[in-house]
Structure formats: structure tokens, C-alpha cells
Design brief:
By secondary structure, the protein is an alpha/beta fold. β10, α6 and β11 form a beta-alpha-beta unit. The longest helix is centred in the N-terminal third of the chain and has 22 residues. The chain is globular. The protein binds 6-phosphogluconic acid. The site of 6-phosphogluconic acid (6PG) has 15 residues, from α2.
Length: 275
């Protein structure tokens, strides 16, 4: 059976901003607020990061916000960062989401705000794993090390991973999220937190990827997309039709357990059905 829409999760809300900068600034501000609130209620906050232009610009916006407000109250030693997907490339390769996230924000958090290096849970490099399936298995083990006893409830049985308090996602022009691409078998993988992709579309960069599965996405408390640019308008519109085709537009299945918010700029929202 092909992938189906997980209707047990939170219906998406839509927020529209003037441009990409406004999208990323709004998410950055909210991210800091939600992390602070989460740490008031629990020991650790888990955040899943994404790559792509909007995802990395969001991290840069967080860094900019922190530099303007050095008295921000986040206790970074209690925050853990994970990734939704990664390219299986050598360490420090500029195409890796990890490299870009470190440059945009994480290096600053480690150097100036007390984020321990061990709280950064990068996906494996090509030095760590010879192929995507091996990388996926390695990352599943890393997630498992931070799972509560008994795992967390997923749509197809429990998953051994921490509950992500926030999962950031970009959306590709083809409607992909993480490295869950249209028409690929990875969309139908259930009962596990990660999977490998050996054949990402060539126009989207290196083919070998590790990605969280839909089941893993659907355990996140809050799923927030950052979507900017006219090239996303078609994918965004297809995600918001009645009964979207998940195999065609994986982003339609980007949903969290408590909250799903699409943050779009005007260009990306251009073709959304009027509500
Ligand atoms: O590894 C990646 O590239 C991302 O995780 C990917 O899912 C990205 O978020 C989208 O492709 C959107 O990217 P843009 O924001 O650049 O369009």
C-alpha cells in the first residue's frame, strides 16, 4: 500500500508572511519561546533541524536574535539538536546540513552559549557509514539512546526515539520534506524511525541520504514548515487539496501530534486555495 495521510495528527494551520526573511524571523522567535517554555516543564528539549535555504536561514535568524538579546534565558545545555535528513558525504562537506547548521547557529551556541557538543546529534557521514541503509541504522541507534523507556507512541507501534518538541521542515519544489521524495519507497517505510535513500533526485544534490520516516515525523509534538519562494507555490497548493496524494506531495503528510504550522511567504502561498 502507498503512503496515506495520517489524520490522527494535528490539522495544519497556515501563517503567511511578506517574504522569506519575515518567515524565518517569525519561526526563530517562536522557536526560542517554545524551547524556553518546554524547559520550564521538562528536563530536556529536543529539536529536529532541516536543511535547505529556508531551514538554514531560520537558524541564522535564531543566531541574529541571540546576538541582539544576549540576556536570552535559554539554558542550552538542556537542548538537544537532531536532523530530519542528511547527505551521506564526508564530514565538513559544505553540502551537509550539519555543516551549514553549525555555521549558521550551532557553532555560536557551543562557543558562546554553553551548548555541549554532545547535544548535537548529527547524522552519519560517509566516513561513518558506507551506504544509506547503514547510516540510517546508526542514526536509529543514536535516537534510541535518548528514547524514554518503552519508546514513544508512533502511528504504527512504538518508536525508540525521543519525542521531538519541535521539528523544522523545509519543502522542496517537488513537495518533498526531509529526504522523503515523491514516488520513493521510503514513503512507505513504517515502524522504524529512519531509513536510507540511495537515489535522491539528481537536481536536488547528492543521491545518498539518511532521513527520518513519516512515522518519526508523526511523533513530533510540533511540526513547523518554512516555505519561501514562488517555486514552492505548486507543491504548497497540492498539499492543501482535499485528500492529497502523499506519494506525489509528501509535504502534505508533514504533521505533528499537537501542532502543525505551515509558515509561507506570499510567493509560496500564491496558489493556496482561498479560505
Ligand atoms: O536536506 C535538505 O535539503 C532538506 O532537509 C530539504 O528537505 C529541504 O528542506 C527542502 O529541499 C527545501 O529546501 P529550500 O528551503 O532550499 O527550498
Amino acid at each position: 500500500m502507498g503512503p496515506t495521510l495520517n489524520t490522527a495528527t494535528a490539522e495544519p494551520q497556515i501563517e503567511i508572511f511578506d517574504d522569506r526573511e519575515a518567515v524565518t524571523q517569525a519561526i526563530a522567535k517562536k522557536l526560542l519561546t517554545v524551547i524556553t517554555e518546554t524547559l520550564d516543564e521538562q528536563d530536556l528539549a529536543h529539536v529536529s533541524l532541516t536543511g535547505g535555504g529556508a531551514g538554514i536561514a531560520t537558524l541564522k535568524a535564531v543566531a541574529d536574535t541571540l546576538s541582539e538579546d544576549s540576556a536570552n534565558g535559554v539554558e542550552w545545555s538542556r537542548v538537544h539538536f537532531w536532523w530530519g535528513d542528511e547527505r551521506l558525504l564526508p564530514r565538513d562537506e559544505t553540502d551537509r546540513n550539519e555543516t551549514q547548521a553549525r555555521q549558521a547557529l550551532l557553532d555560536t551556541l557551543v562557543g558562546e552559549h554553553g551548548l555541549p557538543e554532545e547535544n548535537i546529534h548529527a547524522m552519519p557521514t560517509s566516513e561513518d557509514a558506507a551506504h544509506p541503509a547503514a547510516g540510517a541504522e546508526m542514526y536509529a541507534q543514536e535516537l534510541e539512546a535518548y528514547a524514554p523507556e518503552g519508546g514513544i507512541e508512533g502511528p504504527n507501534g512504538s518508536l525508540n526515539m525521543p519525542e521531538m518538541d519541535i521539528m523544522l521542515l523545509g519543502v522542496g519544489p517537488d513537495g518533498h520534506i526531509n529526504s522523503l521524495f515523491p514516488g520513493k519507497e521510503s514513503l512507505s517505510v513504517t515502524g522504524q524511525s529512519t531509513t536510507g535513500e540511495s537515489d535522491a533526485p539528481p537536481q536536488l544534490g547528492p543521491p545518498m541520504r539518511v532521513t527520518l520516516t513519516f512515522d518519526a515525523v508523526h511523533t513530533a509534538k510540533r511540526v513547523w514548515t518554512a516555505v519561501a519562494g514562488q517555486d514552492k507555490a505548486d507543491a504548497a497548493a497540492k498539499a492543501f487539496v482535499d485528500s492529497p496524494d502523499i506519494s506525489e506531495v509528501p509535504a502534505a503528510n508533514a504533521r505533528g501530534t499537537h501542532q502543525t504550522v505551515w509558515h509561507l511567504d506570499r510567493a509560496a502561498a500564491e496558489q493556496l486555495p482561498q479560505t
